[in-house]
Amino acid sequence: MDTSSPSVLIAGMGVAGLAIARLLRKDGWQTTVVERAASPRMGGQPVDVRGPALDVADQMGILGGLRAVRTRVRGMSVVDSNGVELERNTDWTLGTGALESPDIEVLRDDIMLLLRGGDGYNSEEIFGDSVTGLEQDTNGVEVSFEKSSSRRFDLVIGADGLHSKVRLAAFGDNRRYVRHMGQYLAVFTCPNFMGLDHWQNWYRSEDSNYLAFPVRDNSALRAGIWFNSDEISRDGFSAEDQKHLTANRMAGIGGHVPRLMQEMLQADDFYFSPIAQVHMDNYSNGRVVLLGDACYCASPFSGQGTSLALIGAHILASELRAKERDFGEAFRSYESRMRPFVKINQEIVGLDRADPGYLEAFNKAKSAIVI
């Protein structure tokens, strides 16, 4: 490897991809980021930066920015199928967790802007494309793309999420690693027709749920809807199909839900994904390594996806630096350090949040690593 200016392709422009690009660029790497979307994807649910991930954000120079744009939630109401309040809580909310906590909740849009902004990022970007093949030899990786001509890199990092194309090319059939958890999640933005003022509304049932919360100083509403479902084939399953499936699963619920479904059908930032986890036997294969959800998705219900991404990026970059870019040793150390942390954070998803011991277990999980 050319130690003067090694090159790395990073697939995926989510939190994990932007974080590792920023960290490796600082260490002198030539960083190229490829993103399958035509532009940076906005929207999505709020994300949380917790425990040691706050230290990572501080070291990256974005902690002050995160604090400036953090969400300001006063509490949460649990409502019935007609939108009538059943109970309220001003200590804890489903989306944010404990309100009196040093942890920071921000909109996904805002952390993306912070990671991609400033001189620290400065990476080549390729939009509207994705990895289709990887050919490794002793000197590098020849990468084939769906649209662009093939190019050669010293290393490839797959940070391209639950349905990772890098994982598919380097490790084979994704179905071996992705464990569907029996639910799907839809997220979108609409006008704040509920009139919520820094307040969350949560409707819950055995089959379907929604969480609605105001954003941008109460000017808009972001809604998350999740419902039980067997695994659905992604082939030919368009965004319109996803919207109509979601609307059908919420049919018959009263209160604000009919209006919410109308708004969803018109939303241009609609996001839809299975609730799933990723369990890898190995984090790397030769010169290819996985990061974030592509490697160890804990599911949105863990509340730890963003922290896992930031901490994983920090550890991978620090190991490449410490091992003087000996990628084999660096990848092994990265996996060794991350695997116990990943395990405990994936396991908390199976715990009942209403259990009195849940908060203690969650706090243990979020802090179960030294960076």
UniProtKB/TrEMBL annotation:
It holds the Pfam family FAD_binding_3. InterPro entries: FAD-bd (IPR002938), FAD/NAD-bd_sf (IPR036188), FAD_aromatic-hydroxylase (IPR051704). It comes from the Bacteria. GO terms for molecular function: FAD binding. Residues 7-342 form the FAD-binding domain. This is FAD-binding domain-containing protein. It comes from Duganella lactea.
